[in-house]
Amino acid sequence: APSTVLQWVEIAPEGFTFALKAPRLITHEKRLVDCQAETRAYLDVLRSLGSLAAPGFLQFPAQFTRARDGRALAAYLDWLAGELHGLRLAVEVRAPDLMTEAFARFLAERAMSLVVVERTGTPDHFDAWQTAAPTQTAASAGAPFLFVRIIGNDRDPLPNDRDLQRPQDEILDTWARRIADQLDAGIETFVYMHNPFEGHSPASVRRLLERVAPLHSLPAWSPPPHIPKEQDQSGQLPLF
């Protein structure tokens, strides 16, 4: 709701950004068909965040494939490129026939970026993103950016999400080097950690930052933790 977004803008600490996922109505239910109005409404919410807007992203199900949905996808992305007007958008696909360098280039040519996903049992396709990224600049479509979701083994749930339970040092080392390299190159990088990766995403974020810091100087940003005592009148827990 617009009132909720306004609350976010007013209370978010300096340096915080929001990555808003497009509604499932667009990607899963309508599968990009006759959803221009819903898409414009989503883009309007992104714009209302102003400087607090990280790249938004579209997330497609594994059943959304190039073979079945390729024409609708191409037509939609061609249309969407003309609606961005400076907004940054990333696209996450799960079908193997879309997780390709060719699709990463297709997105880059339209000022969008392929979401890079670290998930157990699935290639992360960082190389495809990296190869395509210069295309975005060459096409004068805006500066490239890296959007990463570190998920881990979400098919093997852990007992809880309160503790570090399965350390992934090698994977964190790899991502620290990749992130530092992109930051050194001036590429803005957005990384989102999920609990299945090691069991407790805040701890995993700290562990990743500890590895990036010696490779690339990072600004200090450590907001005080806040545990809400009760819900507000809207029924939604406060974020900060």
Major sheet description? 3 strands, parallel
Order of helices and strands: HHHEHEHEEHEHEH
From the N-terminal CA to the C-terminal CA, the straight-line distance is: 18 Å
What is the CATH C-level name?
Answer: Alpha Beta
Low-confidence stretches: none
Q: What's the CATH architecture name?
A: Alpha-Beta Barrel
Structure explained in plain terms:
- This protein starts with a helix and ends in a 28-residue tail after the last helix.
- The relative contact order is 0.11.
- The longest helix is centred in the first third of the chain and has 16 residues.
- The chain has a 3-stranded parallel beta sheet. It has a 3-stranded parallel beta sheet with strand order 4-5-6.
- α5 packs parallel to α6 and α7 crosses α8.
- The model has no long low-confidence stretch (mean pLDDT 91).
- The protein has a single domain, classed as Protein of unknown function UPF0759 (TIM Barrel).
- The protein has 240 residues and is of the alpha/beta class.
Give the SSE map.
Elements: H1 2-11, H2 24-29, H3 36-48, E1 56-59, H4 66-81, E2 89-92, H5 101-108, E3 112-114, E4 116-119, H6 126-138, E5 145-152, H7 169-184, E6 188-193, H8 201-212
Parallel strand pairs: 1-2, 2-3, 4-5, 5-6
Helix pairs in contact: 5-6, 7-8
Short synopsis of the structure:
With 240 residues, this protein is α/β, with parallel strands linked by helices. The chain is 39% helix and 12% strand.
